[in-house]
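Check this.
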Amino acid sequence: MKSMTGFGRASHATDSIVASVEASSVNRKQGEVVVQLPRSYAELEPEIRKHVLESVSRGRVNISISIDRTENSPSPIQIDTARAKALSDAFKTLSHDIGHPLEITSSDILRVPDIIRFDEDNLSLDLIREALFPALQEAVEKLVEMRTREGDDLKKDTLTRIETLEQEVAAITERAPSVVKRYRDNLHMRLRESGLEIDLADDRVLKEIGIFAERCDITEEITRLHSHFAKFREYLDTNAPVGRSLDFLCQEINREFNTIGSKANDAQLAQHVVKSKTELEKVREQIQNVE
């Protein structure tokens, strides 16, 4: 079981490039990857996103990438020799036409756009991939490792709360039979106090008690709760993404407790249901961070 929050950072250097990657993730119902990298390399985004989603199925993952040059990288200075030559020829032509010598200077060259330009993003995509993807792989591995550690902590906390829920269910199971017995005793007492001459073994009395017992029976709910708890533990022990499955189980467990509460007709049972639902809500809060 993994958490959906984590962080990883890594760098990888080649002869000409140093790629640095930071990967962080937060809660999301679906898998989402947001990539931040220089615009000139934007066409790499689909490859990066696909690479990340091979390791992460849920959560919003932010990938921040920086590309730095080494001393051996191609020069970022680009010179348009043809444009410079055209400028020089224009000066010579003008000098001839006006009969006055004109000399081209460095200032003249710098004033003309694009004769000399600095292109920091003139590296080929193959060179970028060579440095980027090893760094990305390491950063994602560290991210997953942190998500796994947090998942282990979530698992321990969740198991403790499931044990608490099982204790409440055991208390409910122990208390449930006394509800019908108390109803029967109260019914007998009210009949005696009313002065009605009705035999306590009368079919009508027995039928009333039987209807009440059937209405209050929570055997099916208790059985399903035990089944849900067993399934919960099974999901917690797997490495597959189980966040949605656990969230669904929490809804089912909550439904069973609601049914028990509506059938309770007993203050102590109602208290156990309230405690159980409070503990279950804490479980659901934790599950929202599970992948």
Q: What stands out?
A: The mean pLDDT is 83. Residues 79-118 form one domain. Residues 130 and 234 are 42 Å apart (CA to CA). The longest strand covers residues 59-69.
